[in-house]
Write a structure and sequence with these properties.
Helix 23 links the parallel strand 1 and strand 2. The chain has 511 residues and is mainly α. The radius of gyration is 25 Å and the shape is globular. The chain is built from 24 helices and two strands. It has a two-stranded parallel ribbon with strand order 1-2. The longest helix is centred in the C-terminal third of the chain and has 28 residues.
Length: 511
């Protein structure tokens, strides 16, 4: 196998990195406007007050533990996610929240590159820089097409609940598969640590890690005929995660949240069979209507990946026919497995009744995107190994022509959805002046909420244009949950908003 990249590959990688970087410029522009909002305040209240009073990070962490215990008994059981919710950057500085987008953008880049490197380079033996090319294409389209920018990039609570668990699942799967391949202890330790945290994370990600590791082990056992007793050590991280999930599932707060969801329209599934059937049908509908119908440009991503992958698979087959034939020998089984894994991620949502936050749609999108790419590569590998498709020079020209046609089709049918793509949403928010208005209004709100001699705070209403940012504004009703969380974060008795002209008439322009 050719391990190093060619000059052409390095140029391609450099170009793709440049495209990715340019596509993220709007995200960088909006990052400076990012502020804590809503749930951030509620989860971080005790830690924030403790840190402001003592300057001790340790004390803030202790209060985060106490908050997590309270949430466990009063709202939900995902104990690890809830703990990290409590430690967002604004807990420690009212200007630090601007680092949130950088944390989650960089985190996703690292983890998806790790995933691509392991399975494409290490597991499937693709030559050169193929793994990085595919990772960069995925990242570019993923950042642009993700259903909710809030819970993918800008909002701490949303990102912690869905981006962080996805990244943890990737780390766990890569570590677990490395253990299956090498049986080195450090990989088992890494998987066990990931499993420990996943036991208290959002349920789709916890399920994904267990399923992926089971499939990888089963493939080695049944297809690879591996009979290594050291693989029994994988029961350790499995049990660790199961214990964590049991603790999460037994939380008294789950009943409270379930009742709240049902009152808001949730309709829980009628048992396991209904959950399985509904998850399969819903995953098909979501793929067709949401991920392809509304994010039509994803078809262009698939076309590009198919063209590039074909060239690399041909090279791989030329150098090692036996390896390609062995790796890509069960196409139907692979497609069915990928389909069922994607469908299974809907199960927690279906079982609970369908009332979920925007981040859940992101998780479904990422899983769908990854499963589709893996399926494209695998099917092409099988076609090459069976020599079922012969592509001459005319075929190459036809392939490029088809790719261009797919692009124009995707652009035409998906033109209305472009307004929901990340760069469009960010730049519209910036160029209309809404972002500047929001930041100035939030600065004033922080000043008003930080006044030491006022315990019942009155603030002017804030422009509710959210753009890509999460915004849960203070409203007129002091008992509203968003009001009470903000008040608790700043240690106030209450807060409420009034119309801005009225506030200016009563209090002037300054606090």
């Amino acid at each position: 196998m050719r391990d190093k990249g060619t000059k052409k590959e390095y140029v391609s990688v450099a170009l793709l990195i440049l495209i990715l970087a340019i596509s993220l410029v709007p995200v960088v522009i909006i990052a400076r406007y990012d502020c804590a909002s809503g749930d951030d305040y509620g989860y971080g209240a005790r830690s924030h007050l403790a840190y402001m009073a003592t300057g001790s990070v340790i004390q803030a962490v202790k209060e985060a533990v106490q908050t997590t215990i309270g949430i466990y008994h009063g709202w939900q059981g995902t104990w690890f996610d809830c703990f990290v919710f409590c430690l967002h950057p604004e807990v420690f500085s009212d200007t630090a929240y601007v680092i949130v987008p950088y944390i989650f953008v960089i985190g996703q880049i690292i983890c998806y590159c790790l995933l691509a490197h392991h399975f494409l380079k290490v597991r499937w033996n693709f030559p050169g820089m193929y793994w990085l090319i595919i990772a960069l294409i995925f990242l570019t389209f993923s950042f642009q097409l993700v259903p909710s920018q809030k819970s993918a990039i800008f909002w701490w609570v949303g990102c912690i609940h869905y981006v962080m668990p996805m990244c943890l699942a990737i780390v766990g799967v890569v570590a677990g598969d490395n253990y299956l391949m090498t049986h080195k202890t450090r990989y088992l330790v890494a998987l066990t640590i990931a499993a420990l945290f996943m036991g208290g994370a959002t349920y789709p990600a916890a399920l994904l890690l267990i399923e992926a590791m089971f499939v990888l082990w089963l493939a080695d056992f049944v297809i690879g005929k591996v009979r290594d007793k050291r693989n029994f050590w994988l029961l350790l991280p499995f049990l660790v995660e199961i214990i964590g999930l049991i603790i999460s599932a037994l939380a008294p707060g789950n009943a409270v949240r379930s009742a709240s969801d049902i009152s808001n329209g949730a309709t829980p599934a009628n048992g396991i069979v209904d959950t399985v059937i509904s998850s399969i049908t819903y995953s098909i509908k979501d793929a067709a209507v949401t991920f392809i119908g509304e994010k039509t440009l994803i078809l262009f991503a698939f076309a590009i990946i198919a063209v590039i992958s074909w060239m690399y698979i041909k090279e791989l087959y030329k150098n090692d026919e036996e390896s390609v034939t062995r790796i890509f020998s069960h196409p139907i089984l692979f497609l069915v497995t990928a389909f069922l894994i994607n469908a299974s991620i809907y199960a927690p949502r279906i079982y609970a009744g369908g009332v979920v936050s925007s981040g859940y749609f992101n998780f479904n999108f990422w899983t769908f995107f990854i499963c589709c790419i893996a399926s494209i590569v695998y099917i092409e590998g099988w076609l090459v190994s069976k020599d079922l498709v012969k592509v001459d020079r005319r075929g190459v020209i036809a392939t490029y022509a088809i790719t261009i046609i797919v692009l124009f089709i995707a652009l035409y049918f998906g033109r209305h959805g472009i307004k929901k793509y990340t760069d469009y949403v960010c730049m519209e928010y910036y160029l209309t002046g809404q972002a500047d208005d929001y930041l100035e209004q939030m600065k004033l709100q922080r000043e008003l909420m930080s006044q030491e001699d006022v315990m019942d705070v009155v603030v002017p209403e804030i422009n509710n244009e959210q753009g890509p940012l999460m915004h849960m504004p203070i409203v007129a009703d002091p008992s509203n949950i968003d009001n009470t969380t903000v008040a608790s974060f700043y240690g106030k008795n209450s807060c409420r908003s009034i119309h801005r002209p009225e506030w200016e008439a009563l209090y002037g322009d300054q606090p």
